[in-house]
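Consider this one:
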Amino acid sequence: MVKHLNLVAAQGSGPSPKQFLKAHPDLASIDLLLPDINGVFRGKRIQPEQLEKVFKDGVCLPASVFGLDITGETSEKTGLGFSTGDGDRRCALLHHTLSPAPWHKKPMAQALLTMLDNDGQPYPAEPRNVLAAMVARFAELGLTPCVAVELEFYLVDPEHDIDGMAQPPMGPDGQHRITATQCYSVDDLDHYSEFLDEVNAICRVQHIPASNAVAEYAPGQFEINLNHLPDPVTACDQAMQLKRVIRAVAQKHGHKATFMAKPHQTQCGSGMHIHVSLQDKQGNNRFAQEEALLKQAIAGLLEVMPASQLLFAPHANSYRRMQPDMFVPMAPTWGYDNRTVALRIPNGPASDTRIEHRVAGADANPYLVTAAILAGALHGMEQKLTPPAPVEGDANALELPLLPHRWHDALDCFRAPSALRQQLGETFCDIYASVKESEIQRFEQQITPLEMQWYQDTI
């Protein structure tokens, strides 16, 4: 009975299966999606007649889903694979995410899942549950984090260039490739209006509050913002759903969407900026009311930022983005209305006071990025930390200790004792570190074309 109650509690609110199937009688199948540690969707495809049973009893998936590396291989160092029998756990269907997936050629729907442990409690290695645990810590203090996610991405040609690299998409005429850099260009939005309009239409169908599409600094790069929500977990659910919508719609329009941190060698990378404020039980913005609390949160975020880097930059390609003059923070800094710092306090009405965290790449897992941000803010508040003076002008011109700029260094920093590990939990941190260690080892075993070009005939 306890397990069933926890299963129901995990689902949240939304239409009943009967209501949903009645509203969508022609469904061919339903995708059940569970984002893994890297934010890759795993799961199952079911028939509509199975939906009521899944809603009641859940669906089983192996716990080793959270031991998978970016290639889909299980990292046995996590202890989630064969050493423990590769056992299953029950997953609850998240009621509020059940929605049509209208980009398919046949009528289909989708819903997100969340995994439960054998005792019916949230499975500790699931990123969504790591974030939910951090939100619960704030709830104990009578506070609710309010979060908005901004996602940058590139549209690229489905075909690589002659060197095997990504290339910008063809223009609307189908004859010329987009090569100009036009930040905030309305013309670029017009050129890709059919793609953006369909993304917006599907977001409305899936109740994803997306707004403010912006043409970014590089050819084919865009940013789509999600509205602020006093529910960080749902905000990240929506970010995950948005990424799937963007990829699917781009494919329909003859493009490929990528959230790689740095798909083009000479262009800016793609970031994921998280805006966060704190509400009390009356809905008041505590950051607007208490500057001391805001600064404590900033100080905590700065302190845990090096340890968090592996969550903000989880892949080999993530570190290609971290270059000077590429709109990427290089050091733990903060300032008012300053886009060169890691933590920006945006301009605007005092009631909208918030922290914009600008470090993470678009390739990061939004649940884990947000969890790390909340962990840092909570640490600063609990310890009543004081930040350094805010940066004025170009933060990159200052000689400051840099954040880890190599994958290995970020892993070492993540594994070291820190306030971040204490906040997120040793179980999750050990599993995540093991997955990343396996990826690093496999990546470094590869011989690249550049190595052959440089060394084969010259040494």
Summary: The mean pLDDT is 92.
